[in-house]
Amino acid sequence: MLKFISIQNFAIIDKLEIDFGAGFNLITGETGSGKSILVDAVGLISGSRAQQEMIRQGSDSAVVEGLFTPGEKHPCWEILENAGIDTSEPEVIIRREITQGGNNRAYVNSRLVPLSLVMELGS
User: Fold this and answer.
1) Is 118 helix (H, G, I), strand (E, B) or coil?
2) CB count, 10 Å around CB of 22?
3) pLDDT at residue 44 in the model
4) What's the pLDDT at 32?
5) Mean pLDDT score of the chain, rounded to an integer?
6) Which of 3, 60, 79, 103 has a CA positioned 20 to 30 A from the CA of residue 24?
7) Per residue in 79-112, pLDDT tens?
8) Are 69 and 91 in contact (CB under 8 A)?
9) What is the CB neighbour count within 10 angstroms for residue 119?
10) List of E strands, 11-110
């Protein structure tokens, strides 16, 4: 379950943090308020490809970070163990950084990882 998301310099979003509650969460707003951009940000931390156009105009980089609380028996734990990532905490933090220079990076629990691992976790 996605528990928290932090977005910086992503599309029209300067800075946004959302703390999701347990159960069903609903996001509403007028046309153009950024609902689809939020969905794109979630897609980014789920492994979708980053594009430089996603960086907010006038910024050098964009960062999207999500805190997930998967259940004890969730398949992500085996994926993380196979990748050599510490699984002692009950949370998984995925961070994506997009830069104007094309040096895009992905992190899982503060460890630099290939995008393929984020994609595998996102599936």
Assistant:
1) helix
2) 8
3) 96
4) 84
5) 94
6) 79
7) 999 999 999 999 999 999 999 988 899 999 999 9
8) yes
9) 14
10) 13-19, 61-68, 92-99, 105-108
Contact between 94 and 118 (Cβ < 8 Å)? yes
Neighbours of 68 (CB within 10 A): 19
Strand order in the sheet with 111-113: 13-19, 2-10, 61-68, 92-99, 105-108, 111-113
* Amino acid at residue number 104: N
Query: How crowded is residue 74: how many other Cβ atoms within 10 Å of its Cβ?
Result: 15
- Report the DSSP beta bridge partners of residue 55: 10
Query: Residue 56: pLDDT above 90?
Result: yes
User: Hey, what amino acid is at 18?
Assistant: I
Angle at 33 between CA 18 and CA 13, to 5 degrees: 55
